[in-house]
Amino acid sequence: MPYKEKEIEKKYYSIGEVASIFKVAPSLIRYWEGEFDIIKPKKDKKGNRRFTKDDIEKIRFIYQLVKVKGYTLQGAQEVIKKDQEKVFDKASLVDRLHQIKRFLIEIRDSIHVDPAER
Prior knowledge:
Keywords: DNA-binding. Residues 12-82 form the HTH merR-type domain. Pfam families: MerR_1. It is built from five helices and two strands, in the order H-H-E-E-H-H-H. It is mainly α. A two-stranded antiparallel ribbon has the order 1-2. A hairpin with a 5-residue loop joins strand 1 and strand 2. Helix 1 packs across helix 2. The two termini are 30 Å apart.
């Protein structure tokens, strides 16, 4: 069995890395931090924000509400305040299903044989 190198998992992400994940400007992440009290990144001695995976999941949920579903900021805040745990569980479930879908598509594409190659 060939050696498989273990992926190093980061604990903290910079605001630039988080912004690139969602393909938005860092200023939007800073703005959302001020508007949504669920986003609380740690700050280092210089004041640079350090986001955890939990912070990123919360931002992903806000992104889904605001950018994908078209909620206003106030509407998104109300959805989050209603039942925060249930809402985040559903968001993480949806994200996991998207990951599984991508994985299955990769498998399908890797075993798909072009009829011309037979």
